[in-house]
Amino acid sequence: MATDALKSSRLSAGAVQALNGLEAARGRTLALVSHLDDEQLQRVYSPLMSPLVWDLGHIAAYEDLWLAHRHGELALLRPDLADLYDAFETPRAIRGDIEALGPRDARAYLEAVRTRTVETIAERGVADGVICEMVIRHELQHGETMRQTLAIAGLLPAVDAASLARPLRASETPEEWIDVAAGPFEMGAPADGFAYDNERPRHRVQIGAFQIARYPVSNADWLAFGAHGGYERREWWSQQGWAWLGEQDEACHPAIAAGHPQAPACHVCWFEAEAFARAHGARLPSEAEWEKAATSAPLAGVGRVWEWTQSAFGGYPGFVARPYREYSEVFFGDGYYVLKGGSWATDARVANPRFRNWDLPQRRQIFAGVRLVRDTA
Prior knowledge:
With 377 residues, the chain is an alpha+beta fold. The chain folds into two domains: 2-156, dinb family like domain (Four Helix Bundle (Hemerythrin (Met), subunit A)), CATH 1.20.120.450; 163-375, Alpha-Beta Complex (paralog of FGE (formylglycine-generating enzyme)). The chain is built from twelve helices and nine strands. It has helices at residues 2-6, 13-32, 38-42, 52-71, 103-124, 130-153, 158-165, 219-227, 239-246, 254-258, 270-279, 287-296, and strands at 177-180, 183-187, 203-207, 210-213, 306-312, 337-340, 357-359, 368-369, 373-375. α4 packs antiparallel against α6. It is globular and about 60 Å long. The protein starts with a helix and ends with a strand.
């Protein structure tokens, strides 16, 4: 394992940092599923989510593809598994119906791939470090996806459930709005350091003045919305949102009623967020407004839930896909909306104000809520 390679004086500081990051991510992954039996790992809990054991195999296959194969120029360890664990070749809806690796074999695959990774890094180093960082963050992001599955299954560890339930503020705290002045704003990641392709290039955006809520919307706020006809008053909903609502067995997600009143409302879809904002004489922030506020204003509660924006997911002016177009570009212009800020389940290595998450407007499985903005006169 990596600990053996770390003893070598031949390793650069960058290689040691990469190996430490890989080991930390792997420790989080294995700890996340350590309380589950084989049946729980292989069960399909939702057509929107993979069996957890598929995620384990996918994490291994992705690492082998990028670090041993493309960086180390080795043949794939298991070429027979390449399509099986390719997220596009094997979409989520069919992952429970295919013959994938079982839990024991998936863990063995993870370990065998990691051995090759350590040997590759010990021999070749990490070059500019981009591929290693991408692989580390890929595994950490799958940790959040797996937590979504665990939440659907009612299998979240107690410590995770406590993180989700932690209140934002005291119940007597009044609503607060923060003024954000008009002016130019440098949006996106700088040229140096690691960033995903969709975070670049950095560019200047002119933004008008607005106000943004200091806190995300709470469970209590959301239940009050429902109690006052929020899921019945047509005028607050878009045509698509109203059609979505008509297909739901339950209007409000049950996690909202079950949660602490002052915890942030979670498992909110974009259609609901838009309707809630309209009902309160407000709106969703644009992605640029959210990013400017998060980097310049004293917002509270950032990182508790992903926060929907009104912005469709697309490339910035001058966008270039790297290192592969399937990370971002294939999702542009296909009905996806941007979420910002991270959630309680997002690793700190991933979450930053410029990171762009995205999902379809009807999706509720993500740990998503909303923070309102309103225009100033």
